[in-house]
Request: fold
Amino acid sequence: MTRFDRDTAVTPLGPDRFQGQIDRGWWVVHAPNGGYVAALFLRALAQRVPVERAPRSLTIHFTAPPAEGPVEIETQVERTGRSLTTVTGRMTQDDRLVALGVVAFSVSRAGPDWNHAPMPEVAPPEACESFPPMIPIHERFDYRWAVGERPGSGAKRALVGGWIRSAEPRPADAPLVTAICVAWPPPSFAMRPREDLGAVPTIDLTIHFRRTLPLNETGPGDFVLAVFESRVCEEGFVEEDGQIWSRNGVLLAQSRQLAVIV
Reply:
């Protein structure tokens, strides 16, 4: 069991309630990383469905930053159909709501396949440089910069990304991919001066899982490519769109979040 597995584990408190533990090792400035919180949230809701029904869509709203310590996740199976199960959840800490959301789980379905979102052509991870950890969450992953400009560079485009994997080898399953969707430095940091980076707390996060995870052909030490871009920043809010690919070019997930520029 890796640290990620321990820090996102949940313990049943009843048929529909679970307890998790917010660990400071996943901190971003003054609070835990939203992707880490979402991964813990997903762990709890996944307990309510058969294992063959994989997560397909996750939407979570962060209402308040949780502190270090225990949290409770109350879950509700809203509907179970022939192939799709919808589960909602509320995460609380000391009777304070910190997150709420919904996850759709489904078996694979037959139908037409196409993909007009090819993986960008980048150097392999072995040829890309990492960057020194600036906050605790950076120690939880192995980063290799491959796309866009570094934080504080004053770039003209809010685009960042590169290769990433867990610091401890483990497969890129749905909880880990969830965490990866918010693990990279925000793309808006590329456009801001180094002395004015601040923080970019997430308000809401949606992830569409495009494959059943983990892929059979990938191993626990494999990198995935994560690319994030922001196109609009207005009235103190910025969106961030992300795409996650396996090393062999399979699109694993697409993400979108709305965040506050602090």
